[in-house]
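Hi, here's the filled form for the chain we discussed.

Project: internal
Contact: R.S.
Residues: 156
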Amino acid sequence: MSTRKLFGPVIVLLAACVPAAALADAASHRQSVEKLFELTAMQQKIDESVDSVLALQLTQSPGLRDHESAVREFLERHIGWNSMRDALTDMYLQEFSEQEMNEMIAFYSSKTGQKVIERLPVLVQMRNQLASKRLQENIGELHYQIEGHGKKQAQP
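And the returned structure, exactly as it came back:
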């Protein structure tokens, strides 16, 4: 039997196995993303985001209060968890390897990782308040510069 005849079936078998292995890798990678979303309470955060956007819209446009349920349904349809989950998953799949996902899962599974998840929103809010306070305290400097007082004189 020639070598060519012997390797033919082996090559066909290997070619058939490659897509299956690739699909298995893709499936486990996707499962890693889903596990990370679960650990970081991504669905809850998206739901809270919808609630925040709704509250902001109702505050800015009080006339929408009579249509609150329609606005909520609109927001859920376009930025709610069910509408965003697949796109977010694809973003994470593109941005992070399965190895990186597993490392993040290990971190967020730890006590420290859980504390980060719990405290980070508070720290972001505090950072935003600090930035807002500093801008308010120093807005006069911007007004001064805009009025032309802060321009450097051209040197001859």
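Let me know if anything looks off before we file it.
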